[in-house]
């Protein structure tokens, strides 16, 4: 076997390595001491190898070989030549160079392919915190491709719409839940999977990408849409279509945003719009508020031309339960506004955070009727440094996804509030204050408000909400007992008959269920119906003692004219400006199907309310008196003690 002297020889599974030259010691001395130590160790190891190799050569190998001559370590070229004397090393180097070149080529080909492909695609990402994500999800939920996809996510999420979807496909529309909800559950793309669909004859893919945010395993989601097109027009069309679908789905609701503990806005719920006509105020008040707000929203350029800050504030003050909060949500529905609520008692909210939050409000970039402007509802301003707030429950999980509709707003004091009056004023119209916002503030204590808060520019229009007038009482009654609907009655009758046939329930006779009211003489009818309503046989054992409150029962069949007569009588019984609208509504609620009884018992109710009010006032007065007496007694005691002390202190002086 021919052996290349310059190459190491592989024999018996051992590499014979050349030994280091003796001159290595001299070379090592040039290195710093630590390197010299390493060098010495390496040399000893290699000597051991050599010794081992020599013994192998001597005993096991018939073909004795010559090891490559050791390199001179002070000569670089000889080191290189020495390294290349290893045959395997040269092969490895060839492999590395060849493999590297191949890998480079592969990467280049892939990146060129990627660039080529991406030049034909448009990729759009939608982050879940953004409104466009909701548009897209609602749009996707309506695509037929997901109805037949083999792997989908089934979702009841509301995506900022009025309510969670509860109807399962195939579920009877007669079902109670369907009536309540009216939306079908959605089939959505499953996270991490890619779906392909066609949009306007363009191929597109949809992927929901979830990423871990770090804390408590929370995930953030982004929707990625790739469309096979070079034109942005297609993407714009898609966005417009998704937005329109979303807007039409949310047409009957308003979105509520609250500030969360991270000091950012979260869409917590959507509420059904309340018809403006359902809020009964003194004539002209609702119209004034709506028209003024509408006029404001349409006059951005007017404000800009005059350099006046584009902001409007309304202060609604007056009796509790007179419709202040209700009119705000109604206006929001009427003008397609979203409502942003700041909870001033929120943990960690101080002047700086409030200012930041308010400056983060979205501006009015879009225009009616398609866009949504922003409306802010601020809590009730209170006297200096004590600000009442609307407190909402803290959200712990992802708010947008699993938010149940919020409970009724709870008004609480804010003993922990760190917001000062100057901080609030700054947030409202300081340098960082947002343009294009409408602010509504409500209070029950108008006189105790700081004048700085109420001045024009901050609160431009002040509207008083009084206790109910006779006019309001009459209209409320009219609105509460809607006239008899023939079609509805026919439908109910058929339903009852069906139930009767199926033996489900003993359906009451048509006349009996509605108090038997069917006479032409209004006054006589009122008397008869009142008697019927009060007759003991009418209150069957199955009914609760406090009857007339169930929605499932039916009110008498009343024609508009008859309701008008009853409403007039009801208004006569209600004293002017003494009861709140909320109280009247509460009273009528206890007589849902008993309009005659509601009219008949109205005077008694007023008397009992007066008595209860007087009792409360007496109790309040007694409490105040007791407190005053206690304070006076304490003051007298203190005075007495002081006098005693001064006498005591004077006595030794005299003695002295
Ligand atoms: N003018 C009104 N017309 C119709 N309903 C009314 C009116 N005022 C109050 N209500 C009813 O009373 C309830 C309470 O009304 P709302 O919360 O708007 O009163 P408020 O003036 O904001 O009270 P508070 O000052 O105590 O917050 C609502 O359910 C609403 O339907």
Automatic annotation (TrEMBL):
Question: Where is the protein situated, by its record's location annotation?
Answer: Mitochondrion inner membrane
- One matching Pfam family is AAA_lid_BCS1
Q: Which GO terms describe its molecular function?
A: ATP binding; ATP hydrolysis activity
Indicate the segments forming the BCS1 N-terminal domain, all copies. 96-279
* Region: Disordered, residue numbers: 380-415, 488-519, 627-656
Q: Where is the composition biased (Basic residues)?
A: 387-403
Q: Where is the composition biased (Basic and acidic residues)?
A: 488-507, 636-656
Family matches, as Gene3D superfamilies:
P-loop containing nucleotide triphosphate hydrolases (3.40.50.300)
Residues that span the membrane, as ranges: 79-102
Topological category with respect to the lipid bilayer? Single-pass membrane protein
Record has ATP-binding as a keyword: yes
The Gene Ontology CC terms held by the record are: mitochondrial inner membrane
List the keywords (alphabetical): ATP-binding, Hydrolase, Membrane, Mitochondrion, Mitochondrion inner membrane, Nucleotide-binding, Transmembrane, Transmembrane helix
Can the keyword Transmembrane helix be found in this entry's annotation?
Answer: yes
Which InterPro entries does the record associate with it?
Answer: AAA+_ATPase (IPR003593), AAA_lid_BCS1 (IPR057495), ATPase_AAA_core (IPR003959), BCS1_N (IPR014851), Mitochondrial_chaperone_BCS1 (IPR050747), P-loop_NTPase (IPR027417)
Annotated PANTHER family: BCS1 AAA-TYPE ATPASE
Q: What family, per the record? A: Belongs to the AAA ATPase family. BCS1 subfamily.
Q: What is this protein called?
A: Mitochondrial chaperone BCS1
